[in-house]
């Protein structure tokens, strides 16, 4: 969340990768769209690999929180896709609802810890992490208690979480662009000096 102004800020990239992938998956959880290759590909590439790279860039910027968040959630997306694929490849049995629920609740615990770390950040950071904590808890409970309605509720809550991350990414990106924008000479409404 802190940014060294001499380097590019990887925050908007990581947030956009997280947000867009979260929206796509939760369209499925909310039963708006079926599971498909678009969701899995997004999880591998933009949610997974790109967020992981954003975390490495945050490391280079000496941002421990950003590094931990982006690399961890990048690993989450990669591991989730692997979890879905391993049974189809015949490499491991599918996880039981209790095991899958435990996996999701562990991510909820991690996210709750990260949410505490946002208390000195912007309200939007707090919203993203708090709603993500709730999302993991809802999904974990839906699996453990085998309650499909909780998955649908989680889907709609996850859409809010994902769009919140997209909004935060857009705000950070556009604020950074505005800070670097140069006003062209002779723009209407900007007085220019006239040589005497």
Give an overview in words.
The chain has helices spanning 11-29, 37-60, 64-89, 97-117, 123-144, 148-180. The chain has 196 residues and is an all-alpha fold. The protein has one domain. Helix 2 runs antiparallel to helix 3 (64-89), helix 4 (97-117) packs antiparallel against helix 5 (123-144) and helix 5 (123-144) runs antiparallel to helix 6 (148-180).
Please summarize what this structure is.
This protein is mostly helical.
Summarize this structure as a short list of keywords or feature phrases.
mainly alpha, 0% strand, disordered C terminus, 196 residues, 6 helices, single chain
Estimated radius of gyration: 20 Å
- The assigned structural class equals mainly alpha
Describe the sheet with the most strands. Answer: none
What percentage of residues falls in helices of 4 or more residues? over 70%
- By oligomeric state, this entry counts as single chain
List the helices and strands and how they pair.
Layout lengths: L10 H19 L7 H24 L3 H26 L7 H21 L5 H22 L3 H33 L16
